[in-house]
């Protein structure tokens, strides 16, 4: 296992934008249940990249449903099951099997790297308004409005590449509304369609006048560092992720009912964002072992970023928040489709399949199969295969 952690670190050090949480979750998910439970496992974790992929897939399914023969071929009851894989949407609509689809490449090459980059780019990783943190709701909403205007300007001139880049980056901010605020804790079951509009001003928002937004009623969990945990802590420190607050033994919080407001929007403060959690108040923290502010009163936090309490004090609400983020991603792309129409939306996501491809689809599949075999054979003959195989298994 220690060898696997080292491989993770070596691989991550050669790439840009690799998500530390993904590394940690990857390691954690391969240990026994006893160890996972020590780290507060509650559910699977759905990251930004998967959220945006699922949201796009739903919108693509709705697009094809509205095309000729769509209602007889596309089954919208599959949105949360079979249609998570976009190839299955194309399979049903075209009645053919595809091994390569342009929109999948756009997702992996453009949308997913950009949506993840907001956590790592110097200009946004510690910007509270890029994450709906530190009670910066109005500032975050204005950011969404500004981005939507920029996106529309690129769409107007058919600059789809830059439009996609900005869509991904602002969807990160929108996703964070659900995992960083108390929207879920307030009992909301649906997305907030007012995000990115002037109507957002109708919501009551906690601010500096509210000196107590959380209480310190969270349960503190402390676990001693065995060899694996020591390696994990060292990995985090080497990656430079707020290393000053990660030590052994590891302490984290499980929180339930610590947010005091049900009628006001609240979000947590996060260390190193330039907006410090006040010492003379009982404000909520973002929380998790990457957030040093979690140990200042009110201790704990409210984030729902993952299904592990070690990272997310409200991990039990992670899937609820993640599913709302998927719903909002679908809503966002559907709103884009309404504004620009199906023809331009198809160009925006490279949805069209040419007649030449459709007419030669059987040969195309065979070519793809042969190509994949060649790649696999070549990888087996290289040292890099060891690392790739580690991630594939």
Task: Give an overview in words.
The structure is a single chain. This protein is mostly helical and 393 residues long. Helices cover 49% and strands 3% of the residues. It is built from 14 helices and two strands. A two-stranded antiparallel ribbon has the order 1-2. It is globular.
Give short descriptive properties of this protein.
single chain; 393 residues; two-stranded antiparallel ribbon; 14 helices; 49% helix; disordered C terminus
> Averaged pLDDT, please?
85
- Profile the largest sheet: 2 strands, antiparallel
Query: Helical percent range?
Result: 40-55%
Quickly give the structural class: mainly alpha
Task: Please mark out the parts with pLDDT under 50 across 5 or more consecutive residues, or reply none.
Answer: 1-20, 370-393
Rough outline: globular
Summed up:
This protein is an all-alpha fold. The protein is 49% helix and 3% strand. The longest helix is centred in the last third of the chain and has 32 residues, at 318-349.
Provide the fold topology:
Elements: H1 2-13, H2 20-28, H3 33-38, H4 48-65, H5 70-73, H6 86-94, H7 102-117, H8 137-156, H9 160-180, E1 219-223, H10 227-238, E2 250-254, H11 318-349, H12 355-359, H13 361-380, H14 384-392
Antiparallel strand pairs: 1-2
Helix pairs in contact: 1-10, 4-6, 4-7, 4-11, 7-9, 8-9, 9-11
